[in-house]
């Protein structure tokens, strides 16, 4: 009985609550530190110190005016801490960055850096904090399941990019770009980084194999012509309906007028 009373008394003690909170913080903080150290060690071994240093020089010369000297971001550009190497490889490798002006959306343009320079800048940004890495080549080969990829694409992507990747208009001057001719690497990087108005599809949403299937589907669409003949830029039923309305119905009206004039 006395032992039970002592235990009850210790539970009611303010010191007990402090000990429980401290223990919780210790375990959670320790676990986070271990996980972070593992990620940081992976980042550190992915790039050498020389690559990171050279990448920082390129960053300071070409990107710091908008993104800040320490990549912390400014009013002219967002922070790059935690965006990962994949984001740099996509934005710079597609010519969208460095941006030439503000607007609803950065367009593609001529790439201004070599592959080596892009890789160095990606190494520097990747060293700042953990983030999406450049995808493994084995997921960039168009050897997946095109049928499954088409299904995934229609569920997750077609509402903006069109069912065959022909692109489409969004709100306030934004748009979903055409996916025809886009490299497999940039397609994969767009899915894991969510550029512009695109959502992020991490491995919990779409596994690497799912992403490869989508890449395979897009490659299939690039290599095969429309089975229905002239596709009218693959813009869908609105464009097709307009074509029928103007040329089909217009032709019928023209023939009717011609027949009426001929009978008179």
Q: Can you describe this structure?
A:
With 264 residues, the chain is mainly α. The chain is built from eleven helices and two strands, in the order ααααααααββααα. A hairpin with a 5-residue loop joins strand 1 (168-169) and strand 2 (175-176). Helix 5 (84-93) packs across helix 9. The longest helix is centred in the N-terminal third of the chain and has 33 residues, at 14-46. It starts with a helix and ends with a helix. Mean pLDDT is 83; it is low at 32-45.
* CATH class (first level) name of the largest domain: Mainly Alpha
Helix content: 55-70%
Nearest-integer average pLDDT: 83
The CATH topology of the largest domain is given as Cytochrome Bc1 Complex, Chain D, domain 2
Report the major sheet.
2 strands, antiparallel
Q: Give the CATH H-level superfamily of the largest domain.
A: Cytochrome c-like domain
- Rounded to the nearest angstrom, the distance between the terminal CA atoms is 119 Å
Give the overall silhouette.
elongated
Structural class by SSE content: mainly alpha
For the CA atoms, what is the radius of gyration?
28 Å
Total number of domains: 4
In spatial order, strands of the major sheet run 1-2
In total, the number of strands is 2
Succession of helices and strands = HHHHHHHHEEHHH
Please tell me the CATH architecture of the largest domain by its name: Orthogonal Bundle
- The fraction of residues in strands falls at under 5%
* Low-pLDDT segments, ≥5 res: 32-45
Tally of contiguous helical segments: 11
């Amino acid at each position: 009985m006395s032992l039970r009373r002592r235990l009850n008394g210790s539970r009611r003690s303010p010191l007990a609550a402090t000990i429980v909170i401290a223990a919780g913080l210790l375990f959670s903080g320790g676990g986070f530190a271990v996980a972070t150290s593992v990620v940081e060690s992976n980042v550190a071994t992915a790039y050498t110190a020389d690559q990171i240093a050279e990448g920082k020089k390129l960053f300071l010369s070409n990107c710091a005016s908008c993104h800040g000297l320490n990549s912390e971001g400014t009013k002219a550009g967002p922070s790059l801490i935690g965006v990962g190497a994949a984001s740099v490889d996509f934005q710079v490798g597609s010519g969208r960055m460095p941006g030439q002006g503000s607007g609803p959306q950065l367009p593609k343009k001529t790439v201004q850096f070599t592959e080596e320079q892009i890789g160095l800048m990606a190494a520097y940004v990747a060293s700042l904090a953990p983030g999406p890495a450049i995808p493994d080549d084995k997921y960039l080969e168009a050897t997946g399941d095109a049928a499954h990829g088409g299904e995934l694409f229609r569920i997750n992507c077609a509402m903006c990019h069109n069912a065959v990747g022909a692109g489409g208009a969004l709100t306030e001057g934004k748009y979903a770009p055409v996916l025809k001719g886009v490299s497999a690497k940039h397609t994969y990087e767009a899915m894991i980084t969510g550029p512009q108005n695109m959502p992020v599809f991490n491995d919990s949403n779409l596994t690497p194999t799912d992403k490869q299937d989508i890449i395979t589907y897009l490659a299939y669409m690039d290599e095969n012509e429309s089975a229905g003949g002239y596709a009218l830029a693959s813009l869908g039923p609105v464009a097709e309906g307009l074509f029928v309305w103007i040329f089909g119905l217009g032709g019928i009206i023209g023939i009717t007028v011609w027949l009426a004039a001929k009978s008179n």
